[in-house]
Amino acid sequence: MIHTTDTGSLRVVTVDRPSRRNALRPVDLDDLEAAVADTDAAVVYLHGAGDAFCAGADLDVVADLEDPAAFARHGQRVADAIETAESVVVAGVNGAARGGGVELALACDLRIATPAATFAEPGVQFGLFGAWGGTARLPRALCEGDALDFALSGRVVDAAEAKRIGLVSRVVADPREVAEEVAANEPDALAVVKARMRDDAPREQQERAEAAAFERLVRAHAADIAADRERE
Question: What value, to the nearest 5°, has the Cα angle with vertex 122 and ends 118 and 125?
Answer without folding.
Answer: 150
